[in-house]
Each structure stands twice: as C-alpha cells, then as structure tokens.
C-alpha cells in the first residue's frame, strides 16, 4: 500500500518538470469558492454528484479554460469566469465538466486518482495546465507519464465522442436544475472559430475540449428544444455577481473597479468591491467604512468578516484583524480557508499555540493551500518541532514544483521524525518523487 502510494506520487510529481511554461497558481478565496459552490450545487445534484465532495477551484490565469482530472475537483481559470456574462453561462461550464465526471470519462487516463487532494498532486495539475496554456500540454502530460503518441493527449484532452456526450449530459443536468440552456450556447459562441486556428493559437479550452461546427449545432438544437424561456434565478445571479465582482476587484485596477462597483445592482457587492479597491490603494480610511457598510447589510456573512480581516491584516492592524477573523471563523467553523486566515493572524499576534490549533484544523480539512502549509511550518518551528516544520516545507515546495528544494527539506524531516510515522512517510514520498524526477532528467 505504501509502495503503491509512493510510486503514484512519483509519477504524478514528475509532471511538474515536464513543462518550461510559467507555473500556474491557485487563487484561494473562501468567498469566491463559496459562491461557485452555490452555483454548482443544483447542477451537481442533477448529475448525481455530491456538492459536498466535488469542489470548484480557481486557477489564477487570464486564459479561458476549465477541466477535471479526478472525480472530486473542477478547475476553472479566472479568465474564463471574468468572460462569463450570466450565472447560466458559468453553470453551463460547470455542467459540462460535471458531465465528464458523471460519464466516467476520467477512467481511461494514465493518472486519475487523488490528483487534486494533496499538495503534491496540485503541483502536478498546475504544471500540466501551464503546459497546455502555453500550447505544450500534450508533451508535458505525455512525456511525464512515460507515454507516447496519441496516448499523450489522454491526460487532459477529451475525444470528440466524449465532448458530444458531455454536451448532451451537461445540458440535461442544466434542464433538471432549471437553468436556461441558452447559457451553454453563449459559452460556445465565445469559442467560435477556434477549430480553424493552429494549435498554438487556440485557447487552452479548445486544446482540451475538441471543438467542431457539429458540436455548436448540437448544443443550439438541444437548447432550442427547451422551449419556454427560463427566468434567471435571483440567488444564482447574486452569487455569480459576487464571485465575478470580487475576482475582478482584485484583478482589475482599483480605478476600473470604482467606476463599475455598482453594476451588479446589489449594494453589499458594490460596497465590497469599493472596499477592495480602496484597500488596494492603501486607503484604509475609505476601505473600512465600505466593508462595514457591506456588513451592515449582511451582518452574519462570514466571508465579509473574512475580507475585513484581510484588509486589516494587510494594513498591519493585527489585533483588529484577529477579532475580525475570529468572528468569521465562528460563523463558518468548517471553512478551511477562514480557519487558516484566523491561524495566520493569531501567529502574527504571537499566539503561536492557538494559531497552530486553527492551522491544523484548516490543514486537516484542505491541504491544498500553500499559505497554510507555510504558516503551519512556522508555528511548528517556533515551538521546536523542526521535523514537522521540515515536512510541511517540503510539501509546500513540492506543490510549487520545486522538487529538489522539496527533497532537501524532506531529507531533513526524515532524520527528525519518528521512523514509520505518517509524517515520516509523507517525507519519504516527496524524496521518492524527487529522485524519480531527477533520474528521468538524466
């Protein structure tokens, strides 16, 4: 069992060095992920999938793509979210990817188990996705997995038959969920003409989801068969506006955000976006009244309290930040990202033991946030547990694709941790992966 896990991890991690493209990173934000979860829930239920199990993660990249590599996670590029104009469009993307899971399209892939559940697995996914974004995804995935020819395409890319089946199933899931199928047509309109471009010029979506005029026509016909126009769901539109509004506020210029802050028609979203824009301008005197105005409208919203904590923390107001994060964690006690932020603030406030408690809770719920790995390592180091600090640092480097740096820390960890312990084995897995990758490079 241990040997199989180590071998699988080595194979997964070897993906990281298979592309020279810049590394991609996850954009972890509890509010955005919650909003995406709200949009996904009715679609996933219609697909027979559990909303509690299938998560939506955002890749911080301006390109347009969405994909799945295992049955538990749907990845969406931030650039694709920003291009969507309605909740139905974003739900159409989610429905299509959910259909790949529900239809079992992942089973033929060379690596499809637990990719997105570990820090190291996330590193492999992001490295391979970077290769695809740069136009070299087939080589990156195939070469790393030791496969050749047409099989190289199987790591990410779907066949035309799978795409057609996912279109049909995805639209059925949308119909069951009461979502307007025209959203799928509008999404496909964004990609019109991609099939006539060379691979290097295509969007990443087109390289992983074969496009054709037949697919466009099929989606149009299925959408037309829905008949009566479906009215937008106000709740779905709210969460769509909130996710897109917060994402754009952090990624666009503050000036751009301030001129468009109220375009959603929701006062709390307007104030939230203004708070972010003012914060990015280092204007705490205007940022705090804005976020407090949003909280006056939604006083029990943990994600707004979390944002208030972020604004204060990044403005070096540590003790007020601790209070804001404490309120957020009380309202969302099971949210790993909020727990991690609270632990980070406690650590900055010198409350190391308490910080470690919350960071451990965060890590046990979600080990895919490099900030939590970093902060937890710091808390262990401050309390003299250098073995745990080293293994966590090793995993953080592995997640970033820096295998040789990861190996240095993992080797240090194995000399400090009890032999055979779970943490010791985690360090061994990183070492095995680094050695396998080094051997492959010779």
List its traits:
442 residues; mainly alpha; Zincin-like; 3-stranded mixed sheet; disordered N terminus
Topology diagram in text:
Blueprint: H1 2-13, H2 30-46, E1 55-59, E2 66-68, E3 73-77, H3 78-83, H4 87-102, H5 119-133, H6 137-145, H7 160-176, H8 182-190, H9 204-208, H10 213-224, H11 234-251, H12 254-260, H13 267-280, H14 284-297, H15 302-314, H16 318-331, H17 336-348, H18 352-365, H19 370-382, H20 386-399, H21 403-414, H22 422-441
Parallel strand pairs: 1-3
Antiparallel strand pairs: 2-3
Helix pairs in contact: 1-22, 2-4, 2-7, 2-11, 4-7, 4-8, 5-6, 5-20, 7-10, 8-10, 11-13, 12-13, 13-14, 14-15, 15-16, 15-17, 16-17, 17-18, 17-19, 18-19, 19-20, 20-21, 20-22, 21-22
Structural commentary:
52% of the residues are buried. This protein has helices at residues 2-13, 30-46, 78-83, 87-102, 119-133, 137-145, 160-176, 182-190, 204-208, 213-224, 234-251, 254-260, 267-280, 284-297, 302-314, 318-331, 336-348, 352-365, 370-382, 386-399, 403-414, 422-441, and strands spanning 55-59, 66-68, 73-77. The protein is globular and about 65 Å long. The protein has 22 helices and 3 strands. It folds into 2 domains: 2-224, 2-Layer Sandwich (Zincin-like), CATH 3.30.2010.10; 235-441, Serine Threonine Protein Phosphatase 5, Tetratricopeptide repeat (Alpha Horseshoe), CATH 1.25.40. Helix 1 (2-13) crosses helix 22 (422-441), helix 18 packs antiparallel against helix 19 and helix 21 runs antiparallel to helix 22 (422-441). With 442 residues, it is mainly alpha-helical. Strands 1-3-2 form a 3-stranded mixed sheet.
